[in-house]
Amino acid sequence: MIEIPSYLLKLRYGAVAQRTLQQICSAEQPKSKDDVRDAMVSQLSTIGIIGSNPVMFRKNEDYIDKLVDIFKSKGPAKASAMLTDEFVNDETETDELVTELDDSSVGKSPSAALKVEPLDSLATSTDHQSLPSRWITPKECQFELSLDGLEISTKNPTKSVSSSSSITVNLPHHARSSIFSTKADFSVHETIGIYYYEVEVLFGLNSGSEITIGYMDGDQPEEIISSLRGHDENAWGYKGKDGKLVSFEECRSSVRTSCKFGNKDVVGCGVNFINRSIFITKNGVFLGEAFSLPSNMKRVVPVVSLGSWNSISTNFGHTKSFRFNIDNYVDSFKLRFLKTINNYKIPSVTLDNGREIRDSNDMKNSLSQMIKKYFEHRGYATALKSFEKDLSLEGSEDTPYPLRRESYIKKKLKHLISSNEIDAATELVKSSFPGLLEDNTDIQFKLDCLKLVNMVDSEEQFIKLAKHMKSAYVWEHYQKILNDLSGLLAYDDPTATVLYKSFMNFERARLVHKLCMLINLKSGIPALSNFEQLIHAADSMVVEGNDPNTTLIDIVNDFVQI
């Protein structure tokens, strides 16, 4: 499983990427073998291939497996057309609950059809950029590269492709010099802040292998790859054979010396856009800053160069930990910057309500009020009371914050929906906020969907409500969702399916969030609380700031989460 390296999670880039991935994963179906099969069975039932009464085939695993095989090889439309009488149920009339599935929905997660705003309204966005994950195979270059793109071998540079575990490519000018170079599939932009990778020498001389690791200008065309020999502009290499640090900047070569490395050694190379340096490590030991980055360098890409009879394995940090403690390295810069922030004196400022903030105590009190309003805004009545209790224990003399009527309604609404009391929740909304559901058909539909899913153990009631919903919600988008939900009847245990779990977890929570937002708007309450607006404003300042140190912090992780 590929993960974001732990050191990147300490930085703004990694924290934002992690939250983005969590949101994506929350809406996607798991891709295990059983989950894929279950999804196919669900689609087969909604197409009508399993007949008008799919429940009667639940225990016929051979029959289901045969249909799944056809479905996988031909797709739903062709699979349906290919069916012979031996596959079709004797009942020729199709229940009106089951209709043909449009091709546009094939392969999509049923839960993806119920898209609403993310639960976390504080989630920041950033231009996602992929991280290096493997070495590329340059055209006509001669070396062996493993299928995962992490191991390179030049043990036998004249060897042709003879196994399925590797590929061989050729590049004449590299072959003539017996130097074989490649670079990573993605470059590293300065907005990441700090980046690091390691290489283990699998085969080479103990006294110093003909291997060089480093970086080059990431804005160069893909076909241009530096040999890291000190002849290419904006390329920096650390050589194992003699321990030399070679670069070519401003029309001149630069050569210095560090430690040699060879067989079984693990060497690392990182780029630090905070202090504009490239640093190196050997066997977990920090060897220092090897090069200085030009001030105009915005992007670099990892590069490796090997002579004949060498092989390496690469760690980009996605599947295993590093030998060097890169987390501590990042922490040293991060804590230094956080200390600077904490020591920053708050300037005197007057708020819109006339309240003056002169020191940290005034700021603390103002933030406490914002947090109280945030709890009230979200309907977190219990959290608000607990927060006020904590403040009183700290000696705060603030009077308890009065909760609005809407807060109690939102709290009760959350309880009803989480308890699957959908009818009671619907009546609460209708009686408290007349016209809200009538003006938001999508919300009413999702409430009914939750009610339908909760009836899955009672087939008669499920089908009755589903028929009513199909006649009430005629929009094609709603019809497709109802078709997906009808597939739940095909399972011995519908509660164990991906679709059921998606509704009862993610969709239910998103519905609650959407309802609370609509209640706020209906009551004249801003969509975002003052606290959320403050965080968004601070985050925007961080993004727009030119200080490279800001890549070290994430507003949500470092200053908001408690």
Which helices and strands appear, and what pairs or packs with what?
Elements: H1 6-9, H2 12-27, H3 33-47, H4 61-82, E1 143-146, E2 151-153, E3 166-169, H5 172-177, E4 179-183, E5 188-189, E6 194-203, E7 211-217, E8 235-239, E9 244-249, E10 252-257, E11 266-272, E12 277-282, E13 285-292, E14 299-307, E15 311-315, H6 326-342, E16 349-350, E17 356-357, H7 360-378, H8 381-393, H9 405-418, H10 422-432, H11 441-454, H12 459-472, H13 476-486, H14 498-522, H15 530-544, H16 555-560
Helix pairs in contact: 3-4, 3-13, 7-8, 9-10, 9-14, 11-12, 11-14, 12-13
Please give a handful of descriptors for the protein shown.
562 residues; alpha+beta; Jelly Rolls; eight-stranded antiparallel β-sheet; seven-stranded antiparallel β-sheet; 16 helices; 16% strand; Ubq-SigPath_Reg
CATH class of the domain at 143-317: Mainly Beta
CATH architecture term of the domain at 143-317: Sandwich
Number of strands: 17
Strand order of the largest sheet: 3-1-2-15-6-11-12-13
Radius of gyration: 30 Å
CATH topology of the domain at 143-317: Jelly Rolls
Query: Which structural category fits the helices and strands?
Result: alpha+beta
Proportion in β-strands: 15-25%
Mean pLDDT: 76
Task: State the CATH superfamily name of the domain at 143-317.
Answer: SPRY domain
Unreliable residue stretches: 27-31, 74-128, 158-176
- Shape label: flat
Q: How many DSSP H or I helices?
A: 16
Helix content: 25-40%
Describe the largest sheet.
Answer: 8 strands, antiparallel
> What is the distance, rounded to the nearest whole angstrom, between the alpha carbons of the first and last residues?
29 Å
